[in-house]
Amino acid sequence: KISYTVYLFHLSFLAFTINLFINGRMGYSVSGLIIFLAYLVVTLCYCYMCFLLFENRTALVKKKITVILKL
């Protein structure tokens, strides 16, 4: 269920945060790998929070709209 949220949010989040915090390219080193893994974890957490806020409630919203429209 979360795959669409990851697809939708990850690129814009990464583009924004990388441009904000990293000047230039990350090198191929241990510190570059640690930064990459940190970005991976933070991005997945961000996508999961967006999933919980928006996509996870789709069925509930759909049900409520259906009930309201049938009145």
Main features:
mainly alpha; 71 residues; elongated
SS-based class: mainly alpha
Strand content: under 5%
The DSSP helix count reads: 3
Extended strand count: 0
The pLDDT mean sits at 83
Assembly classification: single chain
- Give the radius of gyration: 18 Å
Biggest sheet layout: none
Percent of residues in helical segments? over 70%
Low-confidence runs (pLDDT<50, min 5 residues)? none
Q: What is the overall shape?
A: elongated
Order of helices and strands: HHH
Gap from first CA to last CA: 31 Å
Compile the SSE list and pairings.
Elements: H1 3-21, H2 30-53, H3 58-70
Helix pairs in contact: 1-2
How would you briefly describe this protein structure?
The protein has 71 residues and is an all-alpha fold. The protein is 79% helix and 0% strand.
Describe the structure.
It is built from three helices and no strands. The protein has 71 residues and is mostly helical. The chain is 79% helix and 0% strand. The radius of gyration is 18 Å and the shape is elongated.
